[in-house]
């Protein structure tokens, strides 16, 4: 441990881990000044109510709550959406996208208050430690980093509860609250508990936002989404900010059980983990964007967009937001998204979202060319020469084999 630290800014959530970290830092770093930093990225209002008082009761000298909701969706979520990124084919990167904006705002506060260190509550087993510390390094490499989970000897939830009890520090956590959850405007994740065995099916306690698809309404609901340059700008004809668009779609999607996944993923640190993720509004947004892309992007452009999405999923998941590679991928996606504008009607029903109507002024779809009826614009005889040239290498290979 570096004992000459005078002031630390801690990424604070008010949960069990960070509530214990505040007194632990003061005890193990020479009674240093601990400032709690709380990022409002759209988590439950219950998590934010009273969070400042809770931080002060835990021993923090100050608590700063910063509203990052609009910036999170506009500057982090929307750029990733344009690439179509899905980590390992299904995860919409809810936690991954939030970490860089949280860490960036934390660094900005640390520089403002003259802190010489930053701290986080990520464990040594997870991805978040990499995401936080990669951001610290990219933006303020002179700041010292304190990661208590890699230093202390508290190894369980029970140990943390006992630690706080001895010090008379209040917490709403209990031994019965066995799930670990991360929530922001984009998604909520659930890990631990019954999910630690892959042979256990997720139960109703593993889902926090969405109704079970089988309990969703028996009547489908339709929503119209307007897209401009790859960004959702309106819901049902009402122009809204990025965060407001997401909020409205979250309400609709959750009501119809949309956006649930139960996956086992590969963590960056080498182990596999299982989690239940709920991303109702994001799933609707993704379907809307892909619907417009189908009209607007030609075959090679769409293939390139898919490649960008695959690369972006790893860049974001691995915490490389402030690396040149992310900037390069984003620039390419922005170029492709320039023409991705239009309107989509989506059907929400029993956990499924389907684009049933779509239109765009930039559409490459031509009913005249695509029709199975009689047309005056396409000469079927032209296909013969195309096929002959397209398969020329196969013809030459076959002749060589024959000879």
UniProtKB/TrEMBL annotation:
Q: Where are the transmembrane segments?
A: none
Listed InterPro entries: Arginosuc_syn_C (IPR048268), Arginosuc_syn_N (IPR048267), Arginosuc_synth (IPR001518), Arginosuc_synth_CS (IPR018223), Arginosuc_synth_type_1_subfam (IPR023434), AS_cat/multimer_dom_body (IPR024074), Rossmann-like_a/b/a_fold (IPR014729)
The positions annotated for binding ATP are: 11-19, 39, 121
Chief subcellular location: cytoplasm
Q: What class of enzyme is it?
A: ligase
Which part of the chain is the Arginosuccinate synthase-like N-terminal domain? Answer: 7-170
Cite the EC number: 6.3.4.5
**UniProt record, GO biological process:** argininosuccinate metabolic process; L-arginine biosynthetic process; urea cycle
Q: Name one GO molecular function term.
A: ATP binding
Q: State the pathway, as annotated in the record.
A: Amino-acid biosynthesis; L-arginine biosynthesis; L-arginine from L-ornithine and carbamoyl phosphate: step 2/3
Provide the binding site for L-citrulline.
91, 96, 127, 131, 180, 189, 265, 277
The segment(s) forming the Arginosuccinate synthase C-terminal domain are 179-396
**Annotated localization:** Cytoplasm
One Gene Ontology cellular component annotation?
cytoplasm
- UniProt keywords, alphabetically: Amino-acid biosynthesis, Arginine biosynthesis, ATP-binding, Cytoplasm, Ligase, Nucleotide-binding
Q: Which reaction does it catalyse?
A: L-citrulline + L-aspartate + ATP = 2-(N(omega)-L-arginino)succinate + AMP + diphosphate + H(+)
List ligand-binding residues for L-aspartate.
123, 127-128
| Top-rank taxon | Bacteria
The record's family statement is: Belongs to the argininosuccinate synthase family. Type 1 subfamily.
Quaternary structure and interacting proteins, as annotated: Homotetramer.
Protein name, please? Answer: Argininosuccinate synthase
- Which source organism does the UniProt entry give? Xenorhabdus poinarii G6
């Amino acid at each position: 441990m570096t004992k000459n630290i005078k002031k630390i800014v801690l990424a604070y959530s008010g949960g069990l881990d960070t509530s214990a970290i505040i007194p632990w830092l003061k005890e193990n770093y020479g009674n240093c000044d601990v400032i709690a930093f709380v990022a409002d990225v759209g988590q439950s209002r219950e998590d934010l109510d009273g969070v400042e008082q809770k931080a002060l009761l835990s021993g923090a000298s100050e608590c700063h709550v910063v509203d990052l909701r609009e910036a999170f969706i506009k500057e982090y979520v929307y750029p990733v959406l344009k690439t179509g990124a899905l980590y390992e084919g299904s995860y919409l990167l809810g936690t991954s996208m939030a970490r860089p904006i949280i860490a960036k705002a934390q660094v900005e506060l640390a520089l403002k208050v003259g802190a010489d260190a930053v701290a986080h509550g990520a464990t040594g087993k997870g991805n978040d430690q990499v995401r936080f510390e990669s951001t610290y390094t990219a933006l303020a490499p002179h700041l010292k980093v304190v990661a208590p989970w890699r230093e202390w000897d508290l190894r369980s939830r029970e140990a943390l509860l006992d630690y706080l009890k001895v010090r008379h520090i209040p917490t709403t956590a209990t031994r019965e609250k066995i799930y670990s959850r991360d929530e922001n405007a984009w998604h909520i994740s659930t890990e631990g508990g019954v999910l630690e065995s892959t042979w256990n099916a997720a139960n109703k306690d593993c889902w926090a936002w969405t109704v079970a698809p089988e309990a969703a309404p028996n009547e489908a609901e339709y929503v119209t989404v307007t897209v401009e340059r790859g960004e959702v700008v309106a819901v049902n004809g009402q122009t809204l900010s990025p965060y407001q668009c997401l909020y409205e779609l979250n309400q609709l999607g959750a009501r119809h059980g949309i956006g649930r996944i139960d996956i086992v993923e590969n963590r960056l640190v080498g182990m596999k983990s299982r989690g239940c993720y709920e991303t109702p509004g994001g799933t609707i947004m993704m379907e809307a964007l892909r619907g417009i892309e189908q009209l607007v992007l030609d075959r090679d452009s769409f293939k390139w967009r898919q490649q960008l999405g695959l690369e972006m999923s790893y860049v974001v998941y691995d915490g490389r937001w402030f690396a040149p590679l992310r900037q390069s991928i984003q620039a390419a996606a922005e170029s492709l998204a320039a023409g991705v504008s239009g309107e989509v009607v989506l059907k929400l029903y029993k956990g499924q979202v389907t684009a049933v109507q779509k239109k765009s002024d930039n559409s490459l779809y031509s009913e005249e060319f695509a029709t199975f009826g009689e047309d005056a614009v396409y000469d079927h005889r032209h296909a013969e020469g195309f096929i002959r040239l397209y398969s020329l290498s196969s013809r030459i290979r076959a002749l060589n084999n024959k000879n």
